[in-house]
Write a structure and sequence with these properties.
Order of helices and strands: HHHHHHHHHHEHHEHHHHHH
CATH architecture of the largest domain: Orthogonal Bundle
Number of strands: 2
Number of helices: 18
Distance between the termini: 26 Å
CATH class of the largest domain: Mainly Alpha
Structural class: mainly alpha
Strand content: under 5%
Oligomer: single chain
Helix content: 55-70%
CATH topology of the largest domain: Fic-like fold
Length: 489
């Protein structure tokens, strides 16, 4: 980027000055490498919560001693990080190209204390402690990691520091592993720098807030990459029946097509300016499908790329998504318990019925006790009727199942009307449509499970999860519009 040209020139100048001192003696190289490895290992682990001090880290690395009163996990993290760094040095020496195998191999060394998770992409949704960012769903991770490497190679025309920084930010945004992402990511960062002839860098524990802020800025202010005028032009170019979307870290045309129930070809056709094999973060494209129906007909549609998002809005979106994720996940577990006569059915159902109370707690500060409690009653009915429907279907009682289904849809209509009543920005028609789709998918999921058609069961759940996140985001958007002062950017 032009704004960083002077900084890149300064970095290149320092690199030239450093190279002027070469060659160094073997003793000098060893001393510099050993000191760096101690500091790098200490800081990278400390950022992730390791309790060993710098001096204790040096003792573990150099003397192989254990520190009294410190967890074994912390010792293993030190040893694993050292092995990871030595492996990176060997990759640089052998000029091994970056691949998913290389990434997994580094992670396997880093995560020495968790054998079953080493070098394996996560299979469950995760949250990042202290961060408002919600990493992509696990089924997207393999394709996103593949695209991450492609994106890096396609940025060969950019300055090395910019390429490597973008790679690191996008890797951490994907969060591909269940644990060890930060340490693995910083080793990959140095792998790419060292292969390009730069010295490795050591992000200090004392600078962790500035480091975290980079990710927050990347995720929340990414739209600053595109001037407002340009965004407006692209929004106007989106034809009727399409809506503008701003590319986020980790997005691919395939993942967007899955999310918005369209095809890659349809997105490309709607966005004449995009290259199918090269998306850039901050780019605005057009996606087929209605977006306006999520809002009240009279509401103005904001730019998809606001000039910053408040912490209150980010927290609301994260919490709303989490509750809807839990809603569908515990519903699924209840269906499985009922279908298989599992001993945990009562406990699982009890946990499921906690979900309406959690929604109530989220809505209470905005709508007061009475309306929040009403929402809890409606959502409780929704879940209780669902369980009754599954049990009736399992028992082969078609009459009871049909009656339960009729009450289920009537309850969905009540919920849609209630949401519109307390918030005119939440379209009753839109939410009725979304809730009816949610019921139809959940019923299909339950029927597939009861018939032991597990492939269909899983496929339906994938659709349920995506559709639930769409409802969560629609609710968040309507609430933010209704309370602009609370969610002021």
């Amino acid at each position: 980027m032009g704004e960083y040209s002077a900084k890149f020139d300064r970095i290149d100048g320092l690199l030239h000055e450093l190279n002027s001192y070469r060659p160094l003696t073997e003793g000098e190289l060893r001393r510099l490498r050993d000191e760096f490895l101690i500091g790098f290992t200490y800081n990278s682990n400390a950022i992730e919560g390791n309790t060993l001090t710098l001096q204790e880290t040096a003792l573990v690395l150099n003397e192989g001693v254990t520190i009294d009163g410190k967890p074994l996990k912390d010792h293993l993290e030190v040893v694993g990080h050292k092995e990871g760094y030595l492996y990176v040095e060997e990759l640089v020496k052998q000029k091994v190209p970056l691949s998913e195998k290389v990434i997994k191999d580094i992670h396997s060394l880093v995560l020495m204390d968790r054998r079953q998770d080493r070098g394996v992409y996560r299979r469950v949704p995760v949250t990042i402690m202290g961060s408002s960012h919600m990493p992509p769903q696990p089924y997207l991770v393999p394709s996103l990691m593949e695209q991450l490497i492609v994106n890096y190679e396609q940025r060969a025309f950019k300055h090395v520091v910019e390429r490597v920084a973008s790679f690191h930010l996008e890797f951490e945004t994907i969060h591909p592993f269940i644990d060890g992402n930060g340490r693995t990511g910083r080793l990959l960062l140095n792998l790419k720098l060292m292969k390009a002839g730069y010295p490795p860098i050591n992000i200090k524990y004392a600078d962790r807030k500035r480091y975290y802020d980079c990710f927050t800025s990347r995720n929340l202010s990414i739209c600053k990459l595109i001037p407002l005028r340009k965004r407006g032009e692209i929004m106007r170019q989106c034809s009727t029946g399409t809506f503008p979307y701003t590319i986020q870290p980790g997005d691919t045309l395939w993942s967007l097509a899955q999310r918005y129930n369209t095809t890659v070809d349809a997105i490309v056709a709607a966005s004449s300016a995009i290259a199918p094999d090269s998306l850039s973060v901050g780019q605005v494209i057009c996606i087929p499908g209605p977006s306006q129906h999520l809002l009240h007909p009279g509401a103005s549609i904001q730019s998809p790329c606001p000039e910053g998002v408040s912490k209150a809005e980010v927290d609301l979106k994260s919490n709303m998504r989490m509750l809807w994720e839990q809603h569908v996940a515990w519903t699924r577990m209840t269906i499985i318990s009922i279908a298989a006569n599992l001993a945990d059915e009562e406990l699982v159902t009890k946990r499921l019925l906690r979900n309406p109370s959690d929604f109530e707690a989220l809505l209470r500060p905005l709508y007061g006790d009475e309306k929040a409690a009403q929402s809890a009653r409606l959502f409780t009915d929704h879940l209780v009727i669902a369980a009754q429907l599954v049990k009736a279907a399992k028992a082969g009682d078609s009459k009871a199942a049909a009656e339960a289904e009729q009450r289920w849809y009537a309850n969905a209509d009540e919920i849609a009307a209630f949401l519109n009543r307390i918030n005119p920005f939440l379209s009753e028609e839109a939410f009725r449509t979304m809730l009816h789709e949610h019921l139809a998918l959940t019923k299909s999921e339950a029927v597939a499970r009861l018939n032991q058609d597990y492939a269909s069961d899983i496929a339906f759940y994938d659709q349920i999860e995506k559709q639930a996140l769409m409802m969560a985001d629609a609710m968040t958007e309507g609430i933010v519009q209704q309370f602009p002062d609370i969610f002021k950017r």
